[in-house]
TrEMBL record:
Signal peptide: none annotated. One of its GO terms (cellular component) is mediator complex. Belongs to the Mediator complex subunit 24 family. Keywords: Activator, Nucleus, Receptor, Transcription, Transcription regulation. PANTHER family: MEDIATOR OF RNA POLYMERASE II TRANSCRIPTION SUBUNIT 24. Pfam families: Med24_N (PF11277). The keyword Cell inner membrane does not apply. It is found in: Nucleus. The lineage of its organism: Eukaryota, Metazoa, Chordata, Craniata, Vertebrata. This is Mediator of RNA polymerase II transcription subunit 24.
Length: 461
């Protein structure tokens, strides 16, 4: 298991030293497979045969390709491999699949034929007890092992089902189409239908692994922003939220840390944030933020744990968060002198412009999700404080309105603790947000400073 079955997403190295065991054992195994009518190990244990089979297969392949062995001999050898202990065939195919990946397209024929022989039925009768049941298990394992390689080489291998249902979700992607086309087509079908069926979920999951989180999220957001019909954008939000659950933590980091800042800071993209797609994107962003934050407090996802240190370094270098070195996004947005902060004293302005409840609660800012949320709210604060209005300021309003709506619906709204206190007085200048109810909803009233900011903002209404 440890040698032949890599964890998901990893690939075996067929040239690894573990596949080059003692040459005398390999020679005796090759002779046994080629000459005997039945596998009887005398000088070797079965686990040694399993570890030696990969090197034996390489010798047999070389002999076949050089004309030393005929196809009939290969049939006898593959029958011997799977005729008694099915695990031997699993070890052989695990190595063959890794080997095929290393070969050019014109060099793969013999290796694929050998996989086909190992997966096919025996040419002779087998009277061993429970053999047929073991073959069913073996074939289901082989089918999973071969799925990716068969997809890449557009090869068809019929795995005998022997009474079990075939696996419906392998070889899902059409072999010669760009994955971006596949993604847009499947999303269009899902949007038209109004729900995500299980086959589509498997395709989305395959595309997520193949293209990566940024590619996957970015292209689906582009599809959302193309929608101009209100009912379709609302449906798209619900569907995207369900699709993003495939890896909500990582998608949220990308959406809030890269995609939204990119849209909000590039004036050439502001037109895409107009209603209805802009409203829909604001809704989706809030749902993802709240969902990730609430589950994140419990425990990090397994993928998050694996990438934790890499993410921390990545996000710390991208978004420095302290008063000495302001965020790159803040520097970008505050470069024009017309930006006005509500605090009069320059010292107060630099020290308090990014002060938020999360800092007073001493939330861990080394955490990637906390960091991304803090920087998004810094960006929102800067947009509200700027004198340039446009679709991006309207988007910020929709984003904050959705935060308040989710609070009213019983959401804990803990993401709002990352909002700088200075944002409150800027928000109440927006007519839709200028009410005591909104002020109380977005301010942390458990803190003395929060109560002071809320009282000041309500008094100014």
């Amino acid at each position: 298991m440890q040698t032949c079955m890599p964890e998901e997403g990893k690939i075996l190295n067929p040239d690894h030293p573990c596949f080059r065991p003692d040459s005398t054992k390999v020679e005796s195994l090759v002779a046994l497979l080629n000459n005997s009518s039945e596998m009887k190990l005398v000088q070797m244990k079965w686990h040694e045969a399993c570890l030696s089979i990969s090197a034996a297969i390489l010798e047999i392949l070389n002999a076949w390709e050089n004309g030393v062995l005929a196809f009939e001999s290969i049939q006898k050898i593959t029958d011997n491999i799977k005729g008694k202990v099915c695990s031997l065939a699993v070890c052989a195919v695990a190595w063959l699949v890794a080997h095929v990946r290393m070969l050019g397209l014109d060099e793969r024929e013999k290796s694929l034929q050998m996989i086909r022989q190992l997966a096919g039925p025996l040419f002779s009768e087998n009277t061993l007890q429970f053999y047929n049941e073991r073959v069913v298990i073996m074939n289901s394992i082989l089918e999973r092992m071969c799925a990716d390689v068969l997809q890449q080489t557009a090869t068809q291998i019929k795995f005998p089902s022997t009474g079990v249902d075939t696996m419906p979700y392998w070889n899902l992607l059409p072999p010669k189409r760009p994955i971006k086309e596949v993604l847009t087509d499947i999303f269009a079908k899902v949007l038209e239908k109004g729900w995500v069926d299980s086959r589509s979920i498997h395709i989305f999951d395959t595309l997520l692994h193949m293209g990566g989180v940024y590619w996957f999220c970015n292209n689906l957001i582009k599809e959302l922003l193309k929608e101009t019909r209100k009912e379709h954008t609302l449906r798209a939000v619900e569907l995207l939220y369900s699709i993003f659950c495939l890896d909500m933590q990582q998608v949220t980091l990308v959406l809030l840390g890269h995609i939204l800042p990119g849209l909000l800071t590039d004036s050439s993209k502001w037109h895409s944030l107009m209603d209805p797609p802009g409203t829909a994107l604001a809704k989706l962003a809030v749902w993802c933020a709240l969902s990730s934050y609430s589950s994140h407090k419990g425990q990090a996802s397994t993928r998050q744990k694996k990438r934790h240190r890499e993410d921390i370094e990545d996000y710390i270098s991208l978004f420095p968060l302290d008063d000495v070195q302001p965020s790159k996004l803040m520097r970008l947005l505050s470069s024009n002198e017309d930006d006005a902060n509500i605090l009069s004293s320059p010292t107060d302005r630099s020290m308090s412009s990014s002060l938020s409840a999360s800092q007073l609660h001493t939330v861990n800012m080394r955490d990637p999700l906390n960091r991304v949320l803090a920087n998004l709210f810094l960006l929102i604060s800067s947009i509200l404080g700027s004198r340039t209005a446009g679709p991006h300021t309207q988007f910020v309003q929709w984003f904050m309105e959705e935060c308040v709506d989710c609070l009213e619906q019983g959401g804990r709204g803990s993401v709002l603790q990352f909002m700088p206190f200075t944002t409150v007085s800027e928000l109440v200048k927006v007519s839709a947000m200028s009410s005591p109810k909104v002020v109380l909803a977005i301010t942390d009233l458990s803190l003395p400073l929060g109560r002071q900011v809320a009282a000041k903002a309500i008094a100014a209404l």
